[in-house]
Each structure stands twice: as C-alpha cells, then as structure tokens.
Write a structure and sequence with these properties.
The complex is a heterodimer. Chain A is of the alpha+beta class. Chain A is built from seven helices and 13 strands. Chain A folds into two domains: 207 residues, Sandwich (Immunoglobulin-like); 40 residues, no CATH class. In chain A, a hairpin with a 2-residue loop joins strand 12 and strand 13. Chain B is mainly α. Chain B has one domain. Chain B contains eleven helices and five strands. In chain B, a hairpin with a 4-residue loop joins strand 1 and strand 2. The chains are: A alpha+beta, B mainly alpha. At the A-B interface, strand 5, strand 6, helix 5, helix 6 and helix 7 of A face helix 3, helix 5, helix 9, helix 10 and strand 5 of B. Strand 5 of chain A pairs antiparallel with strand 5 of chain B, so a sheet runs across the interface.
C-alpha cells in the first residue's frame, strides 16, 4: 500500500505540464484461493496525470487477462438416438480468464487496429480468430467465445471504472470462484478522441493456498503417494465411522 | 457456504454434498446395496466432472465398506479362499479398466462413455429387479418358493484346476471366480462402482455360493478392488478428490444407519421394487441427457 501511495503521489506531483499519462497499481498483487474462495473482487487503482478533469475528456479501457491454456471445442452430432461429441477443434494458448471494462463501449473508444493489436474486448482475443479468413464468424471460435462468456470466464463490460477524486480512478474487476491459478496481467489504456494517449500494465498472481493447495500439489506432483494416502484416509475414516455407529 | 474442491476444481455447497451422501447412504442402508451406482450419476448431475466423480466414488466405496468387511470377518462369513481369486481377477480388471478409461478420456469421449455405460447397466439391472419383485409380489401368499439347489455346477467342476472351497462347500475351478472378479474390477475402474449389484447375483446363481457367505465375500472383494481402482485413478488420472469423498462419507454413514432402520419396516419385495424404480429413474435421466437435443451444440473444455 505504501508503494502504491508513493507511486501515485509521485505521479500526481510529477511535472504535469506534459502529455497526459496513465498508471495502474494493485492494492494486492496476490489473490489466494482457499476452500472458502467464492470469487475475489479486485480493486485496481490508477491515475491519469498531466491534465485536469480527466474524467471529462478521456476514456479508459482496462483489461485483466489470466494464464493461457489450450481448449477443445467439440460439436455435438446426432448419431442414432443419442448426441455424441465429434472431432475436436483446438483453440491454442487462449487466456483462461479475460475481463475488460471501459468507460464507454470499446468500439466507441478505440479504432479497429488498436482493438486487434491490444486485444480489446472478447471478440479481439488474438488466440481466437473469430473472423478467420472470412466475413462470417468462424463457427467453432464463435462457439468457444459463447461458452466462455456464458461460463463467466470471459467478460466485457461498460462501467466499473470510476474517478475517485480528480486524477485518481478505480477499476473494479471480479474473479469467479473457479478462476484458474497463475499469472494475470492487468493493462489500462487511456484514449482521447479515438487516439491512444498512454498505457500501463501491472501483474497479479492467483495462488491456491492452505489445505487445498497441499492436496492439489500432492495429487499432481506425487500422484502415487497421494493415491496411497487417499486409500489410507478412506480406510481410516470408514473404520472410525463404523466404530461410532457400532452399538447405537 | 461454498467449498472449493481442489481436484474437481469446482466450488460446491458442502451441505448439498453431505445431504447427497446421506440420501444415497439411506438407500444403501435400506436396501443393503453399495450405492456407488447411484452416487456417481448424482455427482455428475450436480456438476462434478464425470472423471472425478468416478475416481472419487471409488475411494468413498472403500470407506463405506470397511465396517461391513470387518463385521463379516469377525462372523467368519467371508470365504477368503474364493475371495482371493475374486480379488486377483479384480486387480487385473481394475488395471484394464483404467486403460479403457484413459483411452476414452484421451479421445474426449469419457463423459459420453460413462453415461452410456450407466444407462446400459442401470437399465438392465433396474428392469430385472423390477420384474423379479413384481413376480414375487403377485405370487400367491401361500405358494412355496422353489428351493435353490446348493450344488456346484458340473461345468465349473470340469474346468481345469478344479479345487475344493471349503467355506462355500463348492468343488469348482477358480477360473469362473477370476473371470467374475475381472469383470467387476473393470466396472470399478470405469464406472466408480463396487459392483456388488452384479457380483452378488452372480455368486448366488452362477457360482452357487451359499447365501451366508455371499455378502461378506463380495464386500471383501469390493474393498480390495476399489482400493486398487482409487490408487490407479489417483496415480494415472489425478481424479480422486479426497475432500469430496470425505464429505460424501460423512453424510453416507449417517444416512446408512437411518436407512437400515427404515428398511426393517418394509417387506423385501416392496423394497426391491422401490429400488428398481429409483434405478430406472436415474437411468432415464441419463438417457434423456444423451438423447434430447442439447442446449448448446458445442462442448468446450480444456484440451488434455
């Protein structure tokens, strides 16, 4: 928190006659997932420097991107009387979490080349080429985006960015309960009249902690030991349960 | 309240899970069945990934069989000799089952495969049980049951390595128990069931084992084979969620006690007809999930 304040103060009192600048900082660069994790609300702080009343002339887009992963998209095909998944279509290196917030709809703020270059908005996630060499949306990629938007892993929203006082603003973002662990990136972009004036980024780490983390690590790093432990725990728990109800 | 399951990687309501364990435990206490064949589909309905439901259920069956096995061992109603051959066949079956499971997981069809396996088994067993109990209910009260002959079938004695199983009073080859154990072991790995619902009738009507040792011996086989299946699922697929298993067990032991008491008030045939209807209902739900047009025409999941 102290570093955050010093950054912000430095930004605020920096030589302010020059071009507008944007900076972002996190109150907490670690999010910890434990058994009671029901999603986390992140508050990102930022400041726009070099101008007065930035809220009136500037637009801000903020993007939170999670760690990457490969996904399979399978069409369901009717075979006889049941529906079976068909051949998979693989989406490689797609973010497992993506959330954008903007002061106005992204298409009103940023020109198309910027949207593509900086992956502004779910439809512009580079790993998912929605209009792969044609004008019609690619059916598998469209289905992929649909599924992740429905599941809450991908979100676009207008709002969530509010100026607190003068140059200071906050961005509210929420991580769902099943958010993947790993490194997240936070990027903010400052626009004025359709031109990007400045940008900044920060990093965030989502960790599993506590008993859950130990179970997860053990299961994936020492699977044989974990299996033995599962059998032992089951035997013991069953035995204790049997004793508890023996004569009752 | 929500709890995050470390292996299933979903958040669940612990009260729902404990209640689910209690409900299935109630049924298993009432009907004297393991309950794995109901629990695995219910976990899938609740949103647990099918692979995790199967692996976790195997470990829960280990836990829920312990006290039964110990009680039967104390009462000497376990045929350890024939049980040994059942376990040997079961161990090999469990390993083969894991390979089948991994194959279908690798080609992305494991969910459908598990569902189809359940529809087939629940459908067949539910219908058989229903017909059997209806026949019993419709039979005139005074009519005598035909007594089952207790004699080893000749074809099993004629097979190689025939030997005497003293506690069961049988003279048969160990090959039929090994084959039976193998099939049940495969089911344990693929479907996350103990397999008692297949093994008990097979022991009674095919192997001709005396009723007295059937339940104890099948539990003896189940505990070993589900322990092996748990090991293999944990080691090969990382799909055993011990936290989920413990929550299910908590509900399960309580439910089983209440169920056992409730079961004493109902007649055997009525119980069996009721269980048959429950089994068929779960089967129907799984079938309609497969057969009705899906909400989304695409399935999106992480690539393995």
């Amino acid at each position: 928190m102290r570093t955050l304040l010093s950054i912000l103060t430095a930004m605020l009192f920096a030589v302010s006659a020059q071009a507008a600048d944007i900076a972002v900082a996190l109150t907490d660069d670690r999010v910890e997932v434990d058994a009671n994790f029901a999603g986390a609300d992140l508050t990102l702080f930022g400041a726009v420097t070099g101008v007065e009343n930035p809220a009136e002339v500037f637009d801000i887009i903020a993007v939170v991107t999670g760690p990457e992963g490969d996904f399979n998209v399978r069409p369901l095909e009717q075979r006889g009387i049941i529906w079976l998944p068909g051949e998979p279509w693989t989406v490689k290196n797609a973010p497992r979490f993506y959330a954008s917030s903007a002061t106005r709809p992204i298409s009103d703020i940023a020109p198309l080349p910027d949207q593509a270059q900086y992956q502004l908005g779910v439809d512009n996630i580079a790993a998912v080429d929605l209009y792969a060499d044609s004008d019609a949306p690619h059916p598998f990629n469209a289905a992929f985006l649909d599924a992740l938007e429905t599941g809450g892993q991908y979100q676009d929203r207008v709002g969530g960015i509010s100026f607190v006082k003068g140059a200071l603003f906050t961005i509210d973002a929420s991580l769902p309960a099943d958010t993947p662990v790993g490194d997240y990136g936070v990027a903010v972009y400052l626009y004025r009249d359709g031109v990007m004036v400045s940008r900044d980024s920060a990093e965030l780490r989502v960790n599993k902690v506590g008993l859950e983390r130990r179970i997860y690590d053990l299961a994936h790093q020492r699977p044989v030991l974990y299996g033995l432990l599962c059998v032992a725990v089951s035997l013991l728990a069953g035995w204790i349960a049997g004793l508890a109800f023996r004569k009752s | 309240m929500q709890i995050y399951l470390p292996i299933a990687e979903i958040t669940v309501d612990p009260f729902v899970i404990v209640f689910l364990g209690a409900a299935v435990g109630f049924l298993s206490g009432m009907f004297g069945v393991g309950g794995g064949f109901l629990m695995t589909p219910l976990l899938i309905f609740y949103g647990v990934p099918p692979a995790v439901a199967v692996g976790t259920e195997a470990s829960q069956i280990v836990a829920s069989s312990v006290s039964g096995v110990l009680a039967h061992l104390r009462r000497k109603t376990v045929d350890l000799h024939i049980g040994g051959y059942l376990v040997a066949g079961g161990a090999v079956g469990a390993v083969v089952g894991i390979f089948i499971f991994r194959y279908f997981r690798a080609i992305g069809q494991i969910e459908v495969f598990i569902s189809i396996a359940y529809v087939v088994f629940l459908g067949a067993i539910g219908l058989l049980m229903l017909m059997e109990s209806l026949r019993a209910l419709l039979r005139e009260p005074g009519a005598k049951r035909t007594r089952r002959k207790h004699r080893s079938a000749e074809w099993m004695a004629a097979m190689p390595f025939a030997m005497r199983f003293r506690r069961s009073g049988l003279y048969i080859s160990p090959i039929p128990p090994i084959v039976l154990g193998f099939l049940v072991g495969m089911l344990a790995s693929v479907m996350g069931v103990g397999g008692g619902f297949i093994m008990v009738p097979a022991m009674l009507y095919i192997l001709n084992m005396p009723t007295k040792v059937v339940v104890g011996t099948s539990l003896f086989q189940i505990i070993f084979v589900t322990a092996i299946a748990t090991m293999l699922h944990a080691a090969a697929n990382q799909t055993v969620d011990i936290l989920l298993a413990l929550m299910l067990l908590t509900g399960g032991v309580i439910g089983a006690q209440i169920g056992a008491r409730a079961g004493r008030r109902l007649k055997g045939e009525q119980l069996r007809a009721l269980l048959a209807l429950i089994v068929l209902a779960v089967c129907a739900r799984l079938f309609f999930d497969l057969a009705l047009p899906p909400d989304a025409l695409f399935i999106v999941g992480p690539a393995l």
